[in-house]
Amino acid sequence: VAFVVCRSLEGLKTFSYLEELILDNNLLGNDLLLPRLPHLHTLTLNKNQISFQRNTCKILLDHLAEVVPSLQYLSLLGNIACPNELVCKEKDEDDYQRYRYFVLHKLTSLKFLDTRKVTRREREEALIRGAFMKVVKPK
């Protein structure tokens, strides 16, 4: 087990059998690029700078789907991309659920997202409507 606070993920590719990676509080953004980590099942990116600006979050999620195919647990709490009514008064549970559908549409192997288990109903909804859920509700 190694604990590193970093701004660069250079050298991570040497840990190809890595199973868990905690990158909380590292100022990482949507331009995050991980090497292929086929055994990684847990990734936490809490309290970074990941947002839904333009298409960049979609690109990040597509990248994660490609380079961490075994990913089962992802946490994005504390990022702008993860709407949370405790952090932002304008956000509510519906915003959070739309975010979940969008992430689950992109990362179909997830069993847990943030602190909640992925339900069968959520997975079904994500397949049907997930691609359209990144759209913010009108004010």
UniProtKB/TrEMBL annotation:
InterPro entries: LRMDA, LRR_dom_sf. Pfam families: LRR_9. It comes from the Eukaryota. GO terms for biological process: melanocyte differentiation. This is LRMDA protein. It comes from Menura novaehollandiae (superb lyrebird). The lineage of its organism: Eukaryota, Metazoa, Chordata, Craniata, Vertebrata.
